[in-house]
Amino acid sequence: MNKPLALYTDTEFLKHETGGFHPENPDRLRFIEPVIDSLAAEGAVRVTLCPPLSETELTWTHDSTHVALVKTACRKGPTSLDADTHVAPASWDAALRAAGAVVEASRKVLDGTYRRAFCAVRPPGHHAESDRAMGFCLFNNVALAAEALKREGLERIAIVDFDVHHGNGTQRSFWNDPAVFYASCHQYPHYPGTGAPEETGGKDAPQGILNEAMPAGAGDLEYLAWHMGPLAEALRAFGPQFLLVSAGFDSHADDPLAEHRLSTEGFGLIGRVLVDLAEELCEGKLVAALEGGYHPRALPEGLEAFLREL
Ligand SMILES: [Zn+2]
Question: What's the whole-model pTM score?
Answer without folding.
Answer: 0.98
